[in-house]
């Protein structure tokens, strides 16, 4: 799933290529992906793209329509969705079916993009609204972790205001917007913190380290993704990971000095997390819930 750094890079990519261009066609390939019906997607046709931005993991294309009313095409790529840009978009009509194509936006110079989603579990969500805050998931987003509002004090309040596993807090979009499974693994590794550590038991020094790690990991990931074409962002994300998605590989160490351990995994029903026992849990492996069930 694309997270804050990749979505930020996609917004910049679209801003560079689409702003100033006129929307000439919007085709819906998967009606289930479209979550709003008024105004319809073709209300964007004839409008000029004014901006591309991000709300957490949501992308937002702002279009000034011919009537003068600004509309927002906002979408969440979920786990298997992506933005596929083409300088010369296919001219074949978009027809609903079993294709990965969910939505196509064509611009006046022939360029444009497809929103696609692989797999059978379709979760990509597209909205056409006059205000992004009309999308409940956007309206309920927590603080942006790279914004001026995300201070050490604000983070401390979020941590001490509840007692839950720190991994869950970092991934909670209503608390902190934009961090998902991958970057929460990376942040916790950088902070030398167990993903199962309870927020209520974290001391002030550990909260300091976590706060700094959030900013550092995301800043570095945004910088690494910035300017890259959409087609290269997935590979760039994988290459930048120290522990996420690297089960069984040598741990590079939280500070770049290999610790001598390997990356371990805890698997759940539909996801998994990765961590280093030496760097994060005092050398003690965490129980793998999947293996625990098999051994009963």
From TrEMBL:
<keyword id="KW-0227">DNA damage</keyword>
<keyword id="KW-0378">Hydrolase</keyword>
<keyword id="KW-0326">Glycosidase</keyword>
<dbReference type="InterPro" id="IPR012319">
    <property type="entry name" value="FPG_cat"/>
</dbReference>
<feature type="domain" description="Formamidopyrimidine-DNA glycosylase catalytic">
    <location>
        <begin position="2"/>
        <end position="124"/>
    </location>
</feature>
<dbReference type="InterPro" id="IPR000214">
    <property type="entry name" value="Znf_DNA_glyclase/AP_lyase"/>
</dbReference>
<dbReference type="GO" id="GO:0006284">
    <property type="term" value="P:base-excision repair"/>
</dbReference>
<dbReference type="InterPro" id="IPR035937">
    <property type="entry name" value="FPG_N"/>
</dbReference>
<feature type="domain" description="FPG-type">
    <location>
        <begin position="242"/>
        <end position="281"/>
    </location>
</feature>
<keyword id="KW-0863">Zinc-finger</keyword>
<dbReference type="GO" id="GO:0003906">
    <property type="term" value="F:DNA-(apurinic or apyrimidinic site) endonuclease activity"/>
</dbReference>
<dbReference type="GO" id="GO:0003684">
    <property type="term" value="F:damaged DNA binding"/>
</dbReference>
<dbReference type="Pfam" id="PF01149">
    <property type="entry name" value="Fapy_DNA_glyco"/>
</dbReference>
<dbReference type="InterPro" id="IPR010979">
    <property type="entry name" value="Ribosomal_uS13-like_H2TH"/>
</dbReference>
<dbReference type="GO" id="GO:0008270">
    <property type="term" value="F:zinc ion binding"/>
</dbReference>
<keyword id="KW-0479">Metal-binding</keyword>
<dbReference type="GO" id="GO:0034039">
    <property type="term" value="F:8-oxo-7,8-dihydroguanine DNA N-glycosylase activity"/>
</dbReference>
<keyword id="KW-0456">Lyase</keyword>
<dbReference type="Pfam" id="PF06831">
    <property type="entry name" value="H2TH"/>
</dbReference>
<keyword id="KW-0511">Multifunctional enzyme</keyword>
<keyword id="KW-0234">DNA repair</keyword>
<dbReference type="InterPro" id="IPR015886">
    <property type="entry name" value="H2TH_FPG"/>
</dbReference>
<dbReference type="GO" id="GO:0016829">
    <property type="term" value="F:lyase activity"/>
</dbReference>
<keyword id="KW-0862">Zinc</keyword>
<protein>
    <submittedName>
        <fullName>DNA-formamidopyrimidine glycosylase</fullName>
        <ecNumber>3.2.2.23</ecNumber>
    </submittedName>
</protein>
<keyword id="KW-0238">DNA-binding</keyword>
<comment type="similarity">
    <text>Belongs to the FPG family.</text>
</comment>
């Amino acid at each position: 799933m694309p997270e804050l750094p990749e979505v930020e890079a996609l917004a910049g990519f679209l801003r560079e290529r689409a702003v100033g261009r006129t929307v000439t066609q919007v085709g819906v390939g998967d009606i289930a992906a479209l979550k709003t019906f008024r105004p319809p997607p073709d209300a964007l046709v004839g409008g000029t793209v004014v901006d591309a931005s991000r709300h957490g993991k949501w992308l937002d294309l702002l279009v000034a329509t011919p009537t003068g009313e600004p509309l927002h095409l906002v979408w969440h790529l979920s786990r298997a969705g992506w933005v596929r840009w083409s300088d010369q978009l296919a001219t074949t009509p978009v027809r609903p079916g079993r294709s990965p194509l969910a939505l196509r936006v064509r611009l006046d110079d022939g360029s444009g993009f497809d929103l696609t989603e692989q797999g059978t579990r379709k979760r990509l969500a597209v909205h056409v609204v006059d205000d992004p805050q009309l999308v409940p998931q956007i309206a309920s987003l927590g603080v942006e972790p790279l914004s001026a509002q995300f201070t050490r004090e604000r983070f401390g309040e979020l941590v001490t205001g509840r007692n839950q596993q720190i991994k869950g807090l970092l991934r909670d979009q209503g608390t902190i917007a934009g961090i998902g499974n991958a970057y929460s693994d990376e942040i916790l590794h950088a902070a030398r913190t167990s993903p199962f550590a309870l927020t209520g038991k974290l001391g002030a020094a550990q909260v300091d380290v976590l706060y700094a790690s959030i900013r550092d990991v995301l800043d570095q990931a945004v910088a690494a993704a910035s300017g890259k074409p959409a087609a290269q962002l997935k590979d760039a994300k994988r290459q930048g990971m120290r522990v996420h998605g690297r089960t069984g590989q040598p741990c590079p160490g939280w500070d770049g000095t290999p610790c001598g351990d390997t990356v371990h995994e805890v698997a759940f029903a539909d996801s998994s997390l990765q961590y280093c026992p030496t760097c994060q849990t005092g050398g003690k492996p965490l129980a793998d819930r999947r293996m625990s069930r098999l051994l009963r």
